[in-house]
From TrEMBL:
Residues 343-364 are annotated as: Disordered. Keywords: ATP-binding, Kinase, Nucleotide-binding, Phosphoprotein, Serine/threonine-protein kinase, Transferase. ATP binds at residue 58. It is an enzyme of class 2 (transferase). It comes from Eptatretus burgeri. This is non-specific serine/threonine protein kinase. It catalyses: L-threonyl-[protein] + ATP = O-phospho-L-threonyl-[protein] + ADP + H(+); L-seryl-[protein] + ATP = O-phospho-L-seryl-[protein] + ADP + H(+). Residues 29-290 form the Protein kinase domain. One of its GO terms (molecular function) is ATP binding. Belongs to the protein kinase superfamily. CAMK Ser/Thr protein kinase family. It holds the Pfam family Pkinase.
Length: 364
C-alpha cells in the first residue's frame, strides 16, 4: 500500500502517489543511453512522446523497500533542491513486477565534476558557501519530514543544466528511511567516505548521520580531498574506520591556509563523533557562513586543482565504493536469518568437519 499519511513539513504537500498501470512506452520513448548509476541500478534517458521533453528513468524491482523509497522521494520532490519525480509506473519487465520512475533530467552533471571542469577560473570560498546552503536546504526539508537520506555525497548532488544559474539538487533515496517518533535506525547503509561513526558500529543512530556526511562534503568542497580515507586505496579499511570513530582529521597547509576560521568551525561542529553534540540542520542553516553567503570572502581555493589532479584516483575510489555499496543493496524486511543447522557457510562447514573428526577420535 502507498502511504497517504500527513507528514509535518513546510510547504504544500504533493497529492498521494498514484502509480500508472498502463505500459510506459505509451507515454515515453525509452533510450539505451545510461545517464548514471544509482544504488539500485542504471538510470536511463527517455523522452516524453508528447512534446519530446527529456527525462531520466529509474527502474526498481517492486518490493516493500522500493515502494518506500519511491513514496519518500515523491513526497520530498516538493523541495526546490531535490530531484523531482514526474511519473511512476507499475509495469512488468522480463517477467518481474517493476516500478518505473520518471524524474527530471539533470543535464548539468555531478557537483565535483562541475568544479573539476571549470578551466582556469578559481573556485572560491563564497561559492562553496552557496553550494552548502543549497545542499542544506534539501537536508532541512527531509529532516522536517523526519526522513534521513543516509547517502549524502557528491555523486548524489546534480545540477539541472550546464548554465551558470543551474540549480543543485539531491537525488537517490535508496538508503532513505523515515525516523518518525524519534525512532532510531540500525541497518548499516552508507557510502564509506561519508559515513558517520555511529553508523559503523552496533549502536543505533538517527538522522544526524546526514549532518556528518554534510561535514565531509563541505570539507572536500573546501580543499579537494576527503578528511578520512584509506592509506591503502580501499573503499574503507580498519585504520580509516578507527580515524572516523575517533574523529581524527586535520586542516593541512597549503590547502587550508587561507580558508576562513568560520568554515573550519562549522566542519568541527559537523564532524563531532557524538551525535548529541553534532550541529543540527537548523543550527547549520542559521550559521552566518551559510545564510550570509554574500559576506563570505571570495578566497580562491585549491579544490578545483586538487580534484583535477586526483581525477583518476576519484574514479578508482568510486568504483571501490560501488562494490562496497553492492553488499548493502538488501531489503532488510525480507531477510530470513538462517539457523546454524540450515547454514551452508564454507567456514562453518570446515569447523563442523573438524569438530566431527575430533569427536570421532575421542571414541576411538
Amino acid at each position: 500500500m502507498w502511504a497517504n499519511a500527513e507528514t509535518p513539513f513546510s510547504g504544500p504537500a504533493r497529492p498521494p502517489l498514484q502509480p500508472k498501470r498502463h505500459v510506459i512506452t505509451e507515454d515515453y520513448k525509452v533510450s539505451k543511453a545510461v545517464l548514471g548509476l544509482g544504488i539500485n541500478g542504471k538510470v536511463l534517458e527517455c523522452f516524453k512522446k508528447e512534446g519530446g521533453a527529456k527525462y531520466a528513468l529509474k527502474m526498481l524491482q517492486d518490493c516493500p523497500k522500493a515502494r518506500r523509497e519511491v513514496e519518500m522521494h515523491w513526497r520530498a520532490s516538493n523541495c526546490q533542491h531535490i530531484v523531482k519525480i514526474v511519473d511512476v509506473y507499475e509495469n512488468m519487465h522480463q517477467g518481474k513486477k517493476c516500478l518505473l520512475i520518471i524524474m527530471e533530467c539533470m543535464e548539468g552533471g555531478e557537483l565535483f565534476n562541475r568544479i573539476q571542469d571549470r578551466g582556469d577560473q578559481a573556485f572560491t570560498e563564497r561559492e562553496a558557501s552557496e553550494i552548502m546552503r543549497d545542499i542544506g536546504k534539501a537536508i532541512q526539508f527531509l529532516h522536517s519530514m523526519n526522513i534521513a537520506h543516509r547517502d549524502v555525497k557528491p555523486e548524489n548532488l546534480l545540477y539541472t543544466s550546464i548554465r551558470p544559474n543551474a540549480v543543485l539538487k539531491l537525488t537517490d533515496f535508496g538508503f532513505a528511511k523515515e525516523t518518525l517518533n524519534n525512532k532510531s535506525l540500525a541497518t548499516p547503509c552508507y557510502t564509506p567516505y561519508y559515513v558517520a561513526p555511529e553508523v559503523l558500529g552496533p549502536e543505533r543512530y538517527d538522522k544526524s548521520c546526514d549532518m556528518w556526511s554534510l561535514g565531509v562534503v563541505m570539507y572536500i568542497l573546501l580543499c579537494g580531498f576527503p578528511p578520512f580515507y584509506s592509506n591503502h586505496g580501499l573503499a574503507i579499511s580498519p585504520g580509516m574506520k578507527k580515524r572516523i570513530r575517533l574523529g581524527q582529521y586535520e586542516f593541512p597547509n597549503p590547502e587550508w591556509a587561507e580558508v576562513s576560521e568560520q568554515a573550519k568551525q562549522i566542519i568541527r561542529h559537523l564532524l563531532k563523533t557524538d551525535p548529541a553534540q553534532r550541529m543540527t540542520i537548523s543550527e547549520f542553516m542559521h550559521h552566518h557562513w551559510i545564510n550570509q553567503s554574500k559576506e563570505v570572502p571570495q578566497t580562491p581555493l585549491y579544490t578545483s586543482r586538487v580534484l583535477k589532479e586526483e581525477r583518476e584516483t576519484w574514479h578508482e575510489v568510486k568504483d571501490e565504493m560501488t562494490s562496497a555499496l553492492a553488499t548493502m543493496r538488501v531489503d532488510y524486511d525480507q531477510v530470513k536469518i538462517k539457523t546454524l543447522e540450515e547454514s551452508n557457510n564454507p567456514l562453518l562447514n570446515k569447523r563442523r568437519k573438524k569438530q566431527s573428526s575430533t569427536a570421532g577420535a575421542a571414541y576411538n
